[in-house]
Amino acid sequence: MERLGYGTGVGVYLMERSPRISGEMRSPWAIKKISKLRDTKKTYVVRLEHEAKILKQLNHPNIIGFRGFGKPGSDAAYLAMEKASGCLGDLIEKRFDEFVNNCETEIIPASDPFPAEKILKVAEDVAKALTYLHDEVKMIHGDMKSANVLVFGDFETIKLCDFGVSRKIREDGTIEGDYVGTEIWSPLEIARKQRSLPHEPITAKVDIYPYGLTLFEMISLKPPHLPTVEDAYGSDETFDEETFEDTLAECIGTRPMLPDIEFDSSYHKILALFFCCTEESPLQRPDARDILKVFTEDELVTACSKVTI
């Protein structure tokens, strides 16, 4: 099968399905299965089974559709899902490569953001999915980032995927178990908890910070807290791994700096969302349901009370 993508311990493959007896064509599926070379296969089998159980109970137009689950052995499993046109993370990387390769000057510009309407489409559809998860299912996604956002068509529909580390939300608003999302997208309260430092409660707001960073990725064409386009292509300094790791650790949970470019008015709402969602204190971040009001009301007062539009 053709490989569509990969993640930690897993690969995603295209499964073309044969036509029905009537001759009607059937849509292809995306099959996620454990990587053959993983030494800890059983750990990922448990995680994939956990994801399948969660995905099977979810029913929302902005969450990837469950198609089936199989466990042929103790160290083997697969999850079948609807197939998307592409992954947002891959589209960001492709745009970055095209941007750099097509640059006709020696000085690389700061960035070439996605059109505002596409960023707003991602922002709205993902906010719908998070509102459903947080308010109805009482669950966090747990690993929000561009790699876990799927695009259908030319940004016609956006869906969340990868629920392998999702956690339930208790009645008091805190989450069950440990948050194990990708480090550079982790909010400050998680970074402080992992260092055994005083921290604010771990709530559904842990999904809101990386939601803001996902918008940042579409603006900057890079993951948060990593070198800018200019740094990556214009620096002659020798790379120091230890210094880089120390600097990166200090940045986790903070608001990354936007690229030094001029934004027209079409990006106004996007920038407001980015700023209010990446507040270091979870108490200052909006809820997913409040973010949705940005797309149904004329003002951002409810979601981003400190940001003037």
TrEMBL record:
Which organism is this entry from? Allacma fusca
> PROSITE patterns from the entry?
PROTEIN_KINASE_DOM, PROTEIN_KINASE_ST
What is the protein's name according to its record? Answer: Protein kinase domain-containing protein
Pfam families per the record? Pkinase
Q: Which UniProt keywords apply?
A: ATP-binding, Kinase, Nucleotide-binding, Transferase
The record places domain Protein kinase at: 1-301
Q: Which SMART domains match?
A: S_TKc (SM00220)
Origin, by domain of life?
A: Eukaryota
The Gene Ontology terms for molecular function here are: ATP binding; protein serine/threonine kinase activity
Lineage start: Eukaryota, Metazoa, Ecdysozoa, Arthropoda, Hexapoda
Q: Which InterPro entries match?
A: Prot_kinase_dom, Ser/Thr_kinase_AS
